[in-house]
């Protein structure tokens, strides 16, 4: 058995797909053979240095011969989410999977975070996955099963200077576990992937250091591969969780990088 999807009409819907690592994941899944409908903002969200143009992304996907369609949409908008699901189900397609990747992550303690920003972080990072899953689940149940992968963060276990972001990602961990239990009998596997415990170059992480990649890398240990984590590393884990090989896996958390679930843990340095 391979990772190849059963049908080209098996569709994966992904939020936060128009920027950086999210775009990398969408492309990777489409290259693996799934039809992918990705959506997100065209304007860089707060705390990110990423940029996107849906027209340009679609032109690139078409030129590469990928079954990949990008839509402009806000995961906090119920109507935008409904439209994405409608497009995903077009021409009799089956909704195989959902990837909840959309997130914003400004730094700060609660004293640094105004109420409106705190609310916005919760809306994108936690209510967004709720809305997308709530729209997708009836179709998965009707089809006899499906896969949901939520992109979490080591901050979900609590990290300094990330009060609102940590709160939202901690909630996402609990949300994933609840979904896995609630829809177990429906054949819907729900898992969480956590990127970059040892360091990751992304629009969000660069946004936190004003785009200074050297400053970012100076504070992180990288991965056991001897480099920083990238979008394909995360995409590989998501691809596996969407594949037939992972059909019996649900309710788990996969760290892609290192030690994300251990907070401040760090490996020993290289031996002299």
Stretches where pLDDT falls below 50 for ≥5 residues?
none
Secondary-structure element order, N to C: EHEHEHEHEHEHHHE
Q: What does the largest sheet look like?
A: 7 strands, parallel
Radius of gyration: 18 Å
Share in helix: 25-40%
CATH architecture: 3-Layer(aba) Sandwich
Q: Strand arrangement, largest sheet?
A: 3-2-1-4-5-6-7
CATH superfamily: NAD(P)-binding Rossmann-like Domain
Question: Looking at the structure, what is the overall shape?
Answer: globular
Q: Give the helix tally.
A: 8
Structural class: alpha/beta
How many structurally independent domains?
1
Distance between the termini: 43 Å
Q: What's the CATH class label?
A: Alpha Beta
Q: On the 0-100 scale, what is the average pLDDT?
A: 86
Tally of strands: 7
- In percent, how much strand structure appears in the residues? 15-25%
CATH topology: Rossmann fold
What does this structure look like?
The chain has 272 residues and is an alpha/beta fold. It has a single domain (10-259), classed as 3-Layer(aba) Sandwich (Rossmann fold). The chain contains eight helices and seven strands. The protein has helices at residues 20-31, 54-63, 78-88, 115-143, 163-182, 203-207, 213-218, 231-242; strands at residues 10-15, 35-40, 68-72, 94-100, 146-151, 188-195, 253-256. A seven-stranded parallel β-sheet has the order 3-2-1-4-5-6-7, with helices on both faces. β5, α5 (163-182) and β6 form a beta-alpha-beta unit. The N and C termini lie far apart (43 Å). 46% of the residues are buried. The model has no long low-confidence stretch (mean pLDDT 86).
